[in-house]
């Protein structure tokens, strides 16, 4: 099978690169400065607010957010300052994350520490930033040490301990930070046979300091889990530390590279050793429950006894403070302390989305007793003493069940604190396919089955090999046992890390992300549309909770289609189950947030992006860079496509948070066109042998190219990659140069330089899915960037003709475009053509197409819900007439019609 490496691509395409966007590396500094226009416009201060509103009591170490800027506002060397509404300067660290083609800043990222003064609102403005009182420092030698001024964290360059020590002053709060995993050779649910288990420890392969202050430092660690010679489950860890903060934020990603028939993960966690100081009655544990609930206990309790040590003693222990000298207690207690059990081990287990339990025991070999339970735990625990301890937690703790927070050895000299991302108390992770193929051994049989269950099955394709999951963790190295009130505040910061955000009005004025505009209720007709958008979005939020779309591999995704007969979503029906980004659900959710600024909308879209970028995409193996079409399992369908791994779905969260993991994912997609060498997307529809020619690949100019181009666009604006720019522009210009541009049949793609070539006579080949995976949104952004009139003209023609009468299509392209579907979705294409051509007739046609609702929601459609209760359903639900496809495309069409042709509504 022919292979083309990126090195080959670089060599062959470099000659075609021109007007290169500046690199973010130091080597490109002179290019950046040379490209920046001399008439920079600047920009007035930008208001910032906390996403959830108000003033958070605690931050998760610190916070990092992104802000867009209009083209030509600032050069790459621009500094920024942050001040509170009262005018107090806040230390801030700034770096660019994207540039406009002229070299001016497009996006900047900013970080402030949890130690900074907090207010409800801030201003971001051009100016010299305030420096932190104690800047963060990074020392690199045989080990790497990051000192925040409050804690010092030392990282090993090799071995089994990722973090060798976390110190607060001279006190070691935690040490020997490590990754732990276990697996078994058969699933837990199939008894009757001996189960063989193995334990693994993460081993460090590489450590890199990605950022080093003055406010924020980032350390990236990569490696695999090992046991002897057996190495698997690659991982990537990023540690975020902020000046003046005693917290560490950790982003943990692992990749599944096992045999799902033999390797069943039974535990996956991050573990620290915590030195214990003081007597057992001065050692404490804390668990966050639901809401602001806190369980506070001592390792050896001295309250509730038959004899009373004294009110001052009891109160001190209850508050987590050092108790008075035992000589001052009631001696009937002091002389009998050795008879009071010490509780060595504790466990909070969230094995499903609806309930957790806390257990404890005196030591291994003895039974666990149930302490208490509740609904949905916040996901934070603590072990330590009045002289310091470790708080450790996991974000989305109950949503990503089965999870666990475990404390071991609290009564000994060294305790262990473990965040279990997959609890060993749960059944082992079973990633096998959900059916035996049902006899679908040939392509004709598989295509026939597709007609009934909408599942595109093929033996061997439903593999989880190469999928990933990212989890966010937080650790606090505390100088004392926290009060219950502060512990609750830490738990809230861990569960929902506070984030600063600029307004929809500012983000829109910057001209980013194409055609959208803030919510506008200035006319009755607009109110109707705005109400529908709000009701539709709210209906999906409700469904997530009522249908319990939670779990380690599922959280963040939504279901594709609803079964009104059973009053449930089609979770078990082939391609009607998990959505997997079908028809750009991700885009709709992000545009909804952009225009509303609503915190719930942001968190909903954030969860989807984190899921789809990891679980629905292959990161290892021969299909690396491809995503999987919708199905009962996220990796079940045999359609592996770039339209699902689409970088366009990930850009929003990246630019709004500067998340490095998402940056890695998007960067990995710039070569996903190489997958057309190893997998033939049309293999079931042809009998021709698959002999791919790198210079003549069968890559589609719409669904395929749109996804590839979005990866190149993002890489170009982020890193100035000349090959990404070359392929992006070559693709757009060569498509536009063909007689029938984006609907030209008979064309091939050159992997080396991204050019398309017409291979036959003029013909038309167009499908309804062609532009509903981000192509419309891509072109709206791309056309102003490359300023090519032929590209603009031909794309406008496509947008105008899709919903045009057949006679118009024949007159311009020589053939009818057929009985096309999704006409409501393409109303936004009509609106774009109207805006570009100044044609009010097209604008009115766009609104008519939206309201008619072909393959979507007509104007008469109501998003009102009706309550369905038992015994008709298992749990009460609010049933709404929605589906993911229709919602995503109606949402995108309505949003863009409102932005492009609002006056003709």
Automatic annotation (TrEMBL):
Residues 497-904 form the PcRGLX/YetA-like C-terminal alpha/alpha toroid domain. Keywords: Signal. Residues 141-491 form the PcRGLX/YetA-like central beta-sandwich domain. Residues 1-27 form the signal peptide. The keyword Signal applies. Residues 46-126 form the PcRGLX/YetA-like N-terminal RIFT barrel domain. Pfam families: PcRGLX_1st, PcRGLX_2nd, PcRGLX_3rd. This is Tat pathway signal sequence domain protein.
């Amino acid at each position: 099978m022919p292979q083309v490496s990126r090195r080959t691509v670089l060599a062959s395409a470099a000659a075609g690169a021109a007007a290169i966007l500046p690199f973010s590396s130091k080597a490109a500094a002179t290019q950046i400065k040379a490209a920046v226009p001399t008439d920079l416009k600047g920009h007035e201060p930008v208001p910032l607010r906390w996403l959830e509103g108000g003033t958070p009591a605690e931050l998760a170490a610190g916070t990092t957010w992104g802000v867009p800027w209009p083209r030509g506002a600032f050069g790459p060397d621009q500094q920024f300052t942050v001040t509170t509404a009262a005018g107090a300067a806040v230390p801030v660290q700034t770096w660019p994350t994207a540039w406009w083609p002229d070299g001016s800043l497009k996006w900047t990222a900013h970080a402030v520490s949890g130690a900074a003064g907090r207010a409800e609102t801030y201003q971001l403005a051009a100016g010299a930033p305030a420096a932190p009182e104690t800047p963060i420092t990074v020392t690199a030698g045989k080990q790497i040490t990051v000192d925040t001024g409050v804690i010092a964290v030392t990282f090993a360059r090799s071995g089994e301990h990722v973090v060798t020590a976390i110190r607060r002053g001279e006190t070691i709060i935690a040490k020997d930070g490590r990754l732990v995993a276990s697996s078994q050779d058969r699933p837990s649910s199939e008894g009757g046979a001996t189960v063989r288990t193995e334990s693994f420890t993460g081993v460090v392969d590489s450590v890199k300091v990605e950022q080093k202050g003055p406010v924020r430092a980032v350390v990236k660690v990569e490696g695999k889990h090992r046991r002897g010679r057996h190495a698997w489950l690659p991982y990537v860890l990023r540690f975020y530390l902020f000046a003046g903060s005693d917290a560490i934020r950790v982003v943990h990603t692992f990749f599944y590279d096992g045999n799902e028939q033999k390797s069943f993960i039974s535990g996956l966690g991050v573990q620290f050793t915590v030195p214990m100081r003081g007597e057992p009655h001065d050692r404490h544990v804390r668990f966050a429950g639901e809401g602001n609930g806190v369980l506070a206990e001592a390792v050896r309790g001295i309250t509730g006894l038959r004899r009373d040590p004294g009110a001052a003693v009891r109160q001190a222990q209850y508050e987590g403070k050092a108790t008075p000298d035992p000589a001052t207690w009631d001696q009937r207690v002091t002389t009998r302390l050795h008879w009071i059990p010490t509780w060595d081990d504790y466990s909070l287990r969230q094995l499903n989305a609806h309930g957790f339990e806390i257990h404890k025991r005196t030591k291994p070999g003895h039974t666990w007793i149930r302490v208490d339970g509740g609904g949905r735990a916040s996901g934070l625990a603590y072990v330590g003493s009045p002289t310091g301890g470790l708080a450790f937690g996991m974000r989305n703790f109950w949503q990503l069940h089965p999870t666990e927070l475990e404390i071991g050895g609290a009564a000994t000299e060294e305790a262990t604190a473990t965040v279990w991302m997959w609890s060993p108390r749960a059944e082992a992770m079973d990633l096998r396919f959900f059916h035996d193929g049902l006899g679908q051994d040939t392509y004709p049989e598989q295509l026939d089955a597709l007609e009934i269950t909408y599942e595109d099955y093929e033996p061997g394709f439903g593999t989880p090999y190469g999928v990933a999951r990212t989890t966010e963790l937080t650790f606090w190295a505390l100088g004392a046992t926290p009060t219950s009130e502060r512990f609750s505040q830490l738990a809230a910061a861990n569960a929902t890390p506070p984030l600063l955000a600029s307004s929809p009005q500012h983000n829109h004025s910057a001209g980013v992300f194409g055609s959208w505009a803030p919510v506008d209720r200035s006319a009755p007709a607009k109110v109707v549309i705005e109400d529908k958008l709000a009701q539709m979005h709210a209906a999906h939020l409700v469904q997530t909770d009522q249908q319990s779309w939670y779990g380690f591999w599922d959280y963040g995704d939504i279901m594709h289609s609803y079964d009104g007969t059973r009053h449930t979503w089609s979770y078990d029906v082939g391609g009607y189950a998990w959505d997997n980004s079908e028809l750009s659900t991700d885009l709709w959710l992000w545009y909804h947030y952009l225009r509303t600024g609503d915190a719930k909308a942001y968190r909903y879209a954030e969860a989807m992006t984190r899921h789809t970028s990891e679980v629905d995409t292959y990161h290892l193996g021969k299909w690396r860079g491809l995503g999987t079409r919708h199905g009962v399992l996220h990796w079940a369908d045999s359609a592996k496509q770039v339209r699902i791994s689409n970088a366009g779905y990930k850009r929003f969260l990246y630019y709004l948070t500067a998340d490095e993991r998402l940056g890695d994912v998007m960067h990995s997609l710039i070569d996903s066109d190489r997958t057309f060498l190893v997998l033939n997307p049309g293999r079931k529809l042809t009998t021709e042998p698959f002999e791919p020619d790198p210079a003549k690949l069968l890559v589609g100019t719409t669904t395929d190219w749109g996804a590839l181009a979005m990866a190149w666009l993002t890489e170009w604006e982020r890193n100035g990659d000349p090959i990404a720019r070359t392929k992006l522009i070559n693709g757009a210009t060569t498509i536009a140069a063909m007689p029938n541009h984006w609907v030209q049949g008979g064309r091939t793609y050159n992997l080396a330089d991204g050019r398309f070539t017409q291979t036959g006579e003029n013909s038309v080949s167009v499908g309804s899915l062609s532009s509903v995976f981000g192509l419309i949104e891509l072109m709206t952004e791309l056309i102003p960037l490359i300023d090519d009139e032929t590209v603009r003209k031909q794309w406008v023609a496509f947008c105008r003709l899709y919903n045009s009468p057949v006679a118009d299509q024949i007159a311009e392209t020589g053939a009818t475009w057929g009985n096309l579907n999704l006409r409501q979705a393409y109303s936004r294409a009509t609106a774009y053509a109207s805006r570009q051509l100044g044609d009010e007739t097209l604008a009115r046609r766009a609104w008519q197409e939206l309201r008619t609702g072909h393959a979507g929601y007509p104007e008469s459609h109501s998003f009102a819900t009706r309550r369905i209760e038992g015994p008709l359903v298992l749990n009460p639900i609010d049933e709404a007439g929605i589906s993911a496809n229709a919602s995503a495309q109606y949402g995108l069409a309505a949003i863009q019609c409102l932005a492009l042709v609002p006056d003709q509504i």
